[in-house]
Amino acid sequence: MIISVMVTGSPVSQQSAQTALSFCQAALSAGHQIYRVFFYEDAVQLGSALNVAPQDERNLNAAWSEFIKQYQLDAVICVASALKRGILNDSEASRYQKPAANLAEGFDISGLGQWVDACLNSDRVVSFGA
Amino acid sequence: MSTLHIVSSSPFDSNAFSSALKTASQGDAILLIENGVYAAVDALQIDNLMSGAMPDITHYVLTEDVDARALPRLRNNIAKVDYAGFVALVCQHHNSVSWN
């Protein structure tokens, strides 16, 4: 089946980003296709390349980033949520005259329309987070 | 058209589980994940929440989250699934609703 996943929970204070990652891994293992992963609200923090995890904790940003690269997934970060939380790619950084961009490799910044498109093109959609 | 209700908050913290019980209709399933697994414990408070709920709803709980919380005793009308089972449940039902 074609599955899309929305993640909304904060990766630093909620379990949902971890749950969503395990779910996506299990879905691919079962032979399903992931059309898109859409990161929304606090989950956009997963797209930051600047977070540093303590050595004795799992680095969820790195885990998601590696997973997305390994399977060439379409990973979209909501632009409105991202800008509010200081997650910028090069074009947004120059548009708003910010000193740097910090979007991690493998992620794209785009709009909620990409989630509507995912709902239209997927057999199943699942949402993770508050 | 059946629905999978995914409950991720503890019944002692939020109305997510109660809302799922009230909303679920015949043929639907409820899957407890994250802190939602506390609704799987064999306890009087959970029995009270469940009284009056639709009888034809299957209840599942995510094993990984039960084990992570070392829950001792689960009610006997609930089935354990792993992440592969979670994916299978999503595919078996036409829609999913996430309750927090």
How would you describe this structure in keywords?
heterodimer, A: 130 residues, alpha/beta, Hypothetical Protein Ychn, Chain: A, 5-stranded parallel beta sheet, 5 helices, 20% strand, B: 100 residues
Which CATH C-level class of chain B is it?
Alpha Beta
What would CATH call the architecture of chain B?
3-Layer(aba) Sandwich
Helix segment count of chain A?
5
CATH homology superfamily of chain B: DsrEFH-like
Summed over residues and divided by their number, the pLDDT of chain B gives a mean of 95
CATH architect. name of chain A: 3-Layer(aba) Sandwich
Number of domains of chain B: 1
At the fold tier of CATH, the topology name of chain B is Hypothetical Protein Ychn, Chain: A
CATH class of chain A: Alpha Beta
Structural class of chain A: alpha/beta
Distance between the termini of chain B: 22 Å
Give the number of DSSP strands of chain B: 5
Order of helices and strands of chain B: EHEHEHEHE
Question: Helix proportion of residues of chain B, in percent?
Answer: 25-40%
- Strand-pairing-aware structural class of chain B: alpha/beta
CATH topology grouping of chain A: Hypothetical Protein Ychn, Chain: A
Outline type of chain A: globular
In the CATH hierarchy, what is the superfamily of chain A? DsrEFH-like
The unreliable regions of chain B are none
Q: Strand percentage of chain A, roughly?
A: 15-25%
Verbal overview:
The complex is a heterodimer of chains A (130) and B (100). Chain A is α/β, with parallel strands linked by helices. Chain A has a single domain (2-128), classed as DsrEFH-like (Hypothetical Protein Ychn, Chain: A), CATH 3.40.1260. In chain A, 36% of the residues lie in helices and 20% in strands. Chain A has helices spanning 16-29, 60-71, 79-84, 90-95, 113-121, and strands spanning 2-7, 33-39, 75-78, 107-110, 124-128. Chain A is globular and about 45 Å long. Chain A starts with a strand and ends with a strand. The model of chain A has no long low-confidence stretch (mean pLDDT 97). Chain B is an alpha/beta fold. Chain B has a single domain (3-99), classed as Hypothetical Protein Ychn, Chain: A (3-Layer(aba) Sandwich). Helices cover 31% and strands 23% of the residues of chain B. Chain B has four helices and five strands; from the N terminus they run E-H-E-H-E-H-E-H-E. The two termini of chain B are 22 Å apart. The mean pLDDT of chain B is 95.
